[in-house]
Amino acid sequence: MASPKGTSKVYFIKASAGDGEELISKKARKLFKAGGFASRFKENDFTAVKVHVGEKGNNTHLKAQYIKGLLDELLKLKTKPFLTDASVLYISQRRNSIDHTILAAKHGFSFKKLAVPFIVADGLLGTSETKVTINGEINKEVFIASDIARCQSILSVAHFTGHLGACFGATLKTLGMGCASKRGKLQQHSGITLSIGDGCVLCGECFKHCPADAITLGSIKAHIDREKCIGCAECLAVCKFGAVECNWGAEGEVLQKSIAEHAMGALKEKQDRAVFFNFIMSVTKDCDCFDRPNMPKIVEDIGIAASTDPVAVDKAGLDLIEDRADRKMADLIDNNELNPLYQIQHAERIGLGSAAYELVEIG
């Protein structure tokens, strides 16, 4: 990982979903070799391959076969790789390890398809965690899924998408939110305050989906009990009428900083034993946690970026998208209150890497 004042190399190869799963896998493997990433892994490492298997009903998530070549490289190095993710807060098949593993298999993330097992890193109910001291600006300690904390090396595979609270989700969010236990996720969302505005039509969707039973339906509109609310923003995600309100300008900054600090916790003592891939294809307005099929792309497919620096690979991905679209990320997701640089700048400030990078294109 480069020092904050240094310039990190980000390896890039053009790719699109239209290339097909086999060619995309070969391109990702080519990046792995070009970057010399094998040096990050050792024989008999328990290597966490952090993925997002996609929500039930979502079909724009990364396809399992995209990473087959990367897994083959790890197996060739005689590591002990395992596909992994942690449980979510909201009502979902990914809320416990049994249903999560079944969904992963349905989406191709299984030993049968990839010769590598899928293990939910924070246990049966998302409570198997390790407290990691980081002494950050927002968090003095963070709660990381136990199997992430215990592994020796990490291959992070992120799907670059928009995000309703962080503006975009890629490597830093995959590490910070994705590697946190349920308590760690609650900690990251704790600064978010949501309310129901006058656009409410009492459809009841927010009431049905709230995992904390914090929403009641009144005679005119729904109401959120702030004492019960855990800030997961599921109500915001499911509302089709724009009735759920949040001051993202202020609260989005805190969320992004907390994501960066949890990423720091996930990487503690593994800073030199990790590699980060961003797949910048099928980039949608919302992340893969949404259960909607056929979500439209907000930019044409660009390719795959990889680095040993999580800050640089996210900054490069953001620049590639904004250059291709000739629009800012916040504009692409229709929320100009959000500033995507908060997570990058904070991650750089706390020593996770450098926003300065050299893009090395591989033919």
How would you describe this protein?
There is one protein chain. With 363 residues, the protein is of the alpha/beta class. It folds into two domains: 8-189 and 247-361, LarA, N-terminal domain (Rossmann fold, 3-Layer(aba) Sandwich); 194-246, Alpha-Beta Plaits. Helix content is 32%, strand content 20%. It has 13 helices and 16 strands. It has helices at residues 21-34, 68-76, 97-106, 111-114, 146-150, 171-176, 182-189, 205-209, 234-238, 248-267, 310-325, 329-332, 341-349; strands at 8-14, 46-50, 80-85, 118-120, 129-133, 141-145, 153-159, 161-163, 167-169, 194-196, 215-217, 222-224, 244-246, 274-280, 303-307, 357-361. It has an eight-stranded mixed β-sheet with strand order 4-3-2-7-14-15-1-16, with helices on both faces. The longest helix has 20 residues, at 248-267. 53% of the residues are buried.
Q: What is the chain-wise order of helices and strands?
A: EHEHEHHEEEHEEEHHEHEEHEHEEHHHE
In percent, how helical is the residue content?
A: 25-40%
Total of helices: 13
> What is the average per-residue confidence, as pLDDT, rounded to a whole number?
95
Number of domains: 2
Per the principal axes of the C-alpha atoms, what is the gross shape? globular
Radius of gyration: 19 Å
CATH superfamily assignment of the largest domain?
A: LarA, N-terminal domain
Name of the CATH architecture of the largest domain: 3-Layer(aba) Sandwich
Derived from helix and strand composition plus strand pairing, the structural class reads: alpha/beta
Identify the CATH class of the largest domain.
Alpha Beta
Largest sheet, in brief, is: 8 strands, mixed
Percentage of residues in DSSP E strands: 15-25%
Gap from first CA to last CA = 24 Å
The quaternary state of the protein chains shown equals single chain
Strand order of the largest sheet: 4-3-2-7-14-15-1-16
Q: In CATH terms, what is the fold-level topology of the largest domain?
A: Rossmann fold
Strand count: 16
Unreliable parts: none
